[in-house]
Specification:
4 copies of one chain form a homotetramer. The first copy, chain A, has 481 residues and is an alpha+beta fold. Helices cover 49% and strands 14% of the residues of chain A. A 6-stranded mixed sheet of chain A has the order 2-1-10-11-7-6, with no helix packed on it. In chain A, strands 5-8-9-12 form a 4-stranded mixed sheet. In chain A, a hairpin with a 6-residue loop joins β3 and β4. In chain A, α8 runs antiparallel to α10 and α9 packs antiparallel against α16. The longest helix of chain A has 38 residues.
């Protein structure tokens, strides 16, 4: 059965040898560095859950190619039920990691290419769908993780790719070779790339006829020659380097993004899924965005669950859980969190079959979901901090608690309600800090705005997807026009 | 086939002879009064749509008793698909009437009693489920409308029913007779009661052991002796009395509510569905609230569609449709409207089977849906008014437009962008006024807050439904507790 | 002393004989029609308050021309204290009328012209300031009300005045005569014009060099030949025509707007304050907007006070005043209302002297104030309706309460908490309905968006007034640039 | 002239020798540790600005004791103008430091005690006002900084001080000695204590008659025997420990809070300002809260200015500054920021004289100001992150930019619009990160909620300060009651 264990996944990382830099130094192995290990552990959790008997219905699926049981992250969605289960699975992962676990962009990208390559072939009689299917079978068979690489550097945003002074600002084909092509450029904000076996590269925007060189999509092993990762910093990331990691908040997991540079990388023919079909660039981008935007109504909601749980816990520890305003704020947090989830589920419920046979979520609901995600986590965080109290950002290090000279002060004066030791209280507070102001805030807050496209992109799509013509006709009729 | 035509429904109203008062005068026939006619027409539209071939999949269903095709408003939901279709049907009705069409409270109440009578019988070996089933078959067979009567007068809200000085403040059993019971009290905010054939009465709150007399549920023809309706006023209701109805905005439809007084009304035994089982009062109320709260994610969304359509239309007529801020506000209106819909659909998707075999929506999502409904229509209205412009509330009557002395001024100076006559513009503006400040605002705004329970009721349920224990356990685990 | 009594003001209205139409019929006298009388009474209240000894410090001021005590509404502000007192006076008027009392646009317009005519003269050696001063002395001496007429019909908003097919869409000079000019066009949304003695007309937007004919400002008696008012409709306006006016909510006061048509009206030279100085049109508009935008932080706040009071009262009557969520919502209503006030006061505090010697409020704060006004009254209204309950829009007419057949039902079942009769409860509810859904909502809601310019206008000004250059320099310095 | 220079202030810190622990280690000198140095530098800036000629009108005042020019932070406010100038000074400091500069709590506390000691003396004929005046003269003469110490540990919040199992949870008098008293307990969230010369200690809540031992107020040098500071952690605080401090964002300044433990500290009689007058505890707390709550409408607004400036700068660098939605969001940020400021200024404008002769701001506006502060900075931050883009949290370290192997990649692909080097862009982004997710977020976000009291405290005060009785009377009158 093509399910890799968590341990096996971690082993593959040891042998991966991708070229990575972090804070000005090479990072030979992500598992050996306390900063880059938690993201790997979060990714590993997607393997771990698929091993658990009670989680198999959610975390595994049956490959429509082979009929074998595979990890759902490698699955092509074939029904509305598949679309729904994906959301549930992502929420579950969010709950267990409280961070970005980095495997959904690849999943959503594979589902996108499965459909788009089919469409391109229909129009241009190209061989992309078969090639992509072969790649996909390889991924499924070996239970590998591909990272989706989409956003280009973009240079001056007032100019299109072909208008840039430095043409490398958008990744592009620089040379055609006999058995493949050579590409150059860089992709930003690449989630989980440093823990991934493969990279899938797609264009980041609509392209003009004269921009064929930018219309390239392909997959390539992450450790291919010419590829360099530069690891992105996060707030409080170096707390993980401190002895004892007393103040990390989230003890095991974290997310990561990086800048991925492609310096004249050779892509063999069989891994090329688009080459010059500019008219499909916009459709690819839009379909990927659609698929990915509902994902946020799963994963962020799961992180929200943890934050809500932590907030309920700290209220109890501090003895404020029965205050009317605290109950009201907790209800509001839950309400907002479930509203995020609702639009994702509605998107799945209203999803439909693509020409390729895969299923895609409703485009209007996907954008509605994501637009809420760009807002509500900030309000949920604010309410969490309101309930947690100022101690969230003024408390000593948990190291002080162990210090022989002042430790007893900390233990005495940071005690909670009867029976709650300071350490318990501080651990929960550090977790809330992690999610709202620390490494966790990267994905829970900022990335909630920008991941899968910024709010303005959603607003444009929402208007485009809405049927204003029909809406107007109802209005006309009712007022006698 | 037990589907009544729209015309037949209107005929039944002529013969109904319920005892109704409006503005201090008797109302012998709702169809003859320009104020009470639009609500009847809105109700009639639920019949009309079921007659239309292309609408049958939504507006009709197959009775699980008889296998016959019935109006979906009289249907017991038997699957998640049924739950979803209900939402779609309600949105469709909202689009076509832009008001409260009054038939869903009865539908939701029947689905509630179907399940609760089953549960009571299981515990107390009572005969309620069979009685209710008989009643339901009668409704289905004749395609009748029952209005749900729930909210009591309540007197001083700090006291429970049995603590009230005037015990009639909650409807109650005053006498047991051989073949039935006698009840007294009043129900407030009864939607569509004046257009309905039957009234279904249920308790409005949890009851104590000593409050058996208040634990009564039953159905009774609306024109039964002892029942009096006092028609509720609405903003701008009397514009319908003006000659030509130039400024009504919504030319055909409207909603209505009334105070329904029960003065020693006799209820025959076979129509009694609860009598003294106080422990089931809270469950009944909660199940009805749940079912009804998602309905708002259908009907209000449909009204929202009309308002959005009208707003898009007025922007075009006034030549502002391409302004960035106008596009942004329209996108926001659509976004909020679809967010309302999303939670209703999610509630249907996550719905489950009751012991009786009927299906009920997810309780958490139902409350999330409704809580959003208490907020977003106000913001959507504000944005509509923003785009419409101040002319919405300063323009002359459409009668002035016809006046020989000043009509030419109105036609000249209220003209829109090239080609748009003042009359067109004023009609759309009057429709927006209707929905945001007129008769339509009753259901689109105020009733969005209070119908199916006020915001605070939803907040309490949201916290109760959320699994905070599990949420806390995730938090504990991640921070090492 | 040049202070007119309330009664004298009402007498002047009787003799005014402006040409007014309402709902397709002539309106010979505003006081004789129950719809147009309340606006006149609201205006009259500005006279009444100035008569009250304890109100004189607020409602009167000393004319800087004559040293005589005049109504503050006719005063040129000469200090920050004057600016502050204006805000307090407007709040006081809002509290006493709960509607638009219509006299501030004229006041703000006079203060604007006082300053702008001075500036025009400085540049063009024109005689406008003296002319305007003469007019102003006349107003002060006789304690008259001038209505400000600004907004043109605008036709297609994508075109400037000179690009319109129908050039009358912006009021303009059509002929120069020996002793004056002839103008044609129409002004929309003219507040209080039908109750005013004079009209002051100013341009509505920036003008181009070729648009000299639109750059006209002047004052003219409201009953001048060629001027026609068409009275604007309001929600529930005709409740005032019902016998007993049982359901009007606000028993005495109301606001009004109208369309004012100028058909070839002759303006004598001494009343012309701008003629062709296109470069000053934008400055005039901006200064008027600035002065007027802070006014909303007075009057609307006063109406907010009434709505808050009514909401607190209904909570008490219904026995919910101690519920935590009710207290929280009341606190929120007060908070939002005072936030509106704060920016108006800050605008006055930061106000400064113009070249003419008059004082003008801070332009940034004026726009901040108004932008909040476009939002908060809607939320305050929503909260008021939340606390009031659904009964707000479902209750019978107060006429039903008097009916011999059903009156006892209404009195019995609409009773409040012990001791509160249904009539008391219904009166307060009708007042809340008036402000949030009735005639009062025109000014409290819609006009809060559009009066003194729409939100987008404020956003543009806010950015323009903010010193982003300095803000950037602070940022650069802190990060080492 | 009693103005200390910045350098002299820093010298005093070197000699202070307060007992401080940080992350489990002693901190002998705050200036020598890169984490604790920026807070000291921020405090020092209050001295530096007072040295600048053009800043003297804002940063200095004339002592009403001596007539000498003193730092305004040591001044007793004697007029509305003083109240206004305080707000302007704090905004200016916020702009120059983008953090909490820690000197206002002491200032507000001194102004509070000046008034309250006067009031106590009036009632109890105590000698507190004279004692406090002596202390104040000492502070003014030597231009010293006292930190305000208010919030106790609180233990179980459901119990009052005297009900706590561990009575030290509220600081209290443990022994009366001949010339003074001994106190024990701890104060949390003490802003700037580690950089301060003196500590002023006051109660944190209303007290009962039997809680006299908790009703103590006094001042004491920060380095007094028995006092221990435990330094609070902040997000990303250790970036300051990294070589080159490449990613700190704010290069110079920061804020700090600490836990301050009083272990049997002796307080000499002449420094005691309250001892057992329980009835004044609540008044003291409320007056301090009032004074301090408006301060937030100064300092946070200044930080907001920097964030707005940084956001405008990054938009320009990235070439998005002309996009409609970016302009709209910047306008919104400015609008919210100025709304915060407005209520502070209104509070100062409406401020009034206390019995002692000092001036205090309006209590209603002070709470309105602070309640807005608990909300808007979160929205401003969200908008800043929206405009900044995802790069804010995914970009490499600025160290990577210098690395010989990957530096050229970073410089190439993180370049901005023509002419903007990656380093410039990254510096601004790091500053935005600092304020919204780093050390700066402690005061800009979390402390905006909790400093000077949490939102619920403001809500309670807002309702208490509002004149609901009068508001109700207006409503009654208008509806005929």
């Amino acid at each position: 059965m093509p399910l890799m264990t968590k341990d096996d996944y971690l082993s593959t990382l040891k042998n991966l040898k991708s070229r990575i830099f972090i804070q000005g130094k090479p990072l030979p192995n992500v598992l050996d560095n306390p900063i880059s290990r938690p993201p790997a552990m979060a990714m590993a959790e997607t393997y771990y859950q698929a091993e658990q008997e009670e989680m198999k219905p959610l975390f595994t699926a049956r490959s429509h190619f082979t009929g074998e049981i595979i990890n759902r992250f490698a699955h092509i969605q074939r029904s509305n039920e598949d679309l729904v289960k994906k959301i549930y699975m992502l929420r579950e992962m969010g709950r267990r990691t409280a961070c970005c676990f980095q495997r959904c962009a690849g999943m959503d990208c594979m589902n996108t290419l499965y459909s788009i390559t089919y469409d391109i072939d229909q129009q241009f009689s190209t061989p992309y769908h078969q090639r992509f299917t072969d790649f996909l079978k390889y991924i499924q068979r070996n239970d590998l993780v591909p990272a989706a690489c989409m956003t280009d550097a973009k240079g001056d945003r007032n100019f299109s790719p072909s208008q840039q002074t430095d043409r490398d600002q958008y990744l592009h084909l620089v040379e055609e070779k006999k058995n493949g092509i050579v590409v150059r450029g860089a992709k930003l904000h690449i989630t989980g790339g440093v823990n991934s076996h493969e990279l899938i590269v797609i264009p980041t925007r609509a392209l003009q006829e004269e921009e064929k060189e930018y219309a390239v999509a392909f997959a390539i092993p992450a450790n291919t020659k010419g590829i360099t990762f530069v690891y992105g910093r996060q707030p409080s990331d170096t707390r993980r380097l401190e002895e004892g990691q007393a103040d990390v908040g989230n003890l095991v997991f974290g997310g990561c993004e990086s800048l991925v540079v492609f310096e004249d990388v050779f892509i063999p023919e069989e891994r090329i899924f688009m080459k010059g079909e500019v008219s499909f660039a916009a459709r690819l981008v839009e379909l990927f965005a659609t698929q990915h935007r509902v994902s946020y109504g799963g994963c962020k909601v799961g992180v929200g669950d943890v934050l809500i749980g932590a907030t309920a816990a700290i209220a109890e520890m501090q003895g404020t859980e029965k205050a009317g305003h605290v109950k009201d704020k907790l209800a509001e947090m839950i309400h907002l969190n479930e509203t995020l989830h609702a639009a994702a589920l509605a998107g799945a419920l209203k999803g439909s079959r693509t020409a390729s046979g895969s299923y895609s979520v409703d485009r209007l609901m996907a954008n509605v979901c994501k637009l809420n995600v760009t807002r509500f986590p900030f309000e949920i965080s604010r309410l969490a901090q309101d309930i947690a109290g100022g101690i969230l950002v003024t408390m000593p290090s948990r190291e002080d608690q162990e210090n022989p000279e002042v430790g007893h002060y900390v233990r005495k004066y940071l005690v909670g309600k009867a029976g709650v030791e300071s350490d318990k209280r501080m651990r929960i507070l550090r977790l809330i800090e992690n999610i709202t102001l620390g490494t966790g805030a990267v994905s829970y807050l900022t990335e909630s705005i920008h991941g899968a496209g910024s709010p303005q992109a959603q607003k444009i799509m929402i208007t485009r997807m809405a049927d204003l013509g029909t809406a107007k006709s109802y209005a006309y009729k009712l007022c006698g026009l």
